[in-house]
Amino acid sequence: MSSVAIVLPLLLSAGMANAQEKPKSFKPVPVTAVKAAAAPVLDGDASDAVWKAAPVVKFDAIKGVNFKDNLGNTSGTVQAAYAGDMLYMLVTYDDPTLSVRRSPFVKQPDGAWVKLKDPDDKGGDNNKFYEDKMAAIWNIGGSIFGFNERFSCQAACHAGEPGKPYGNKYTMEEGEMGDMWHLKYVRGGAIGQIDDQYLDHTRYDPEKAKEAGRKSDAKTGGGYEDVKLVDGKPEFMSKDAKAANKGGTYWLKAEDKVAFDNSKFAAGDEIASIMVAPFTGDRGDIATGAKWANGKWTVEIARKLVTGSKTDVQFDDMAKAYGFGLGFFDNAQVRHAFIQEPLHLVFQK
To answer: What does the pLDDT read at residue 23?
Structure first.
């Protein structure tokens, strides 16, 4: 039986395995997608009938940062189902805190605005003022050597490389590609979308390839962008004029932006430094309903079984197994916990 894999995009930067050490080999674990009579509602609530019928696979994820007791580990469950032309997944995992305070602007006592930064961040490694994320990487067409059978996303992680404090993510050979489903809660999850990205063999280059093999699917519109400081003040604010730490949000919806009014805010107020809008096109074809409550994330995911995009995994043969890996970020830019075992999505007839 052939298999395809999903790595943790969360996965974004690299670091599940050291570049100088051999990835550890693990036996694959099956995740069975049941045929559902009706689609689940994407609301971050696992009470849908389909989830009561789908087998529950428990997992442990290790070697991240933060999480319980700052040990960087978490545990959870994954389930899958399909209905019509759609695949659905449910992932739950433990996270003691909701993290959405992604480098906001903060008004100082003298009236100046400053963007919060992690003082220990040496470059793309923010672990203090970031957001909760989750990611998956699928092995497109089984192209990534060893990914499905033994290594999962360890096959594409390269830690300790020059230029990045945490390392890089890329495949080893030309033609090896992974489909990354990257849930960034502040930049997309809160508006019901997972960032659709992909992985190829590109090595890190400080000028030409800062993200190494991690790239984004094509889009026709939407997305997220930083809010700029203009004359020392944020260029935009939300039309409700609420500070993020006083009932507002740490993301600014593009349709809610208005010109900034400094008189609306007092010293200590925080506002979003990121503006968001749903992706359209290939990059926007994964929907989600994600909710944090009582120390746990509940994430529902929906995507068409077949998209036709060369940068997506295609679930076009229900006799196959599709391997995947999952990664989990607790207020971390790149340092994610990950499941060591390859996960194999299989379809119940």
So the answer is: 67
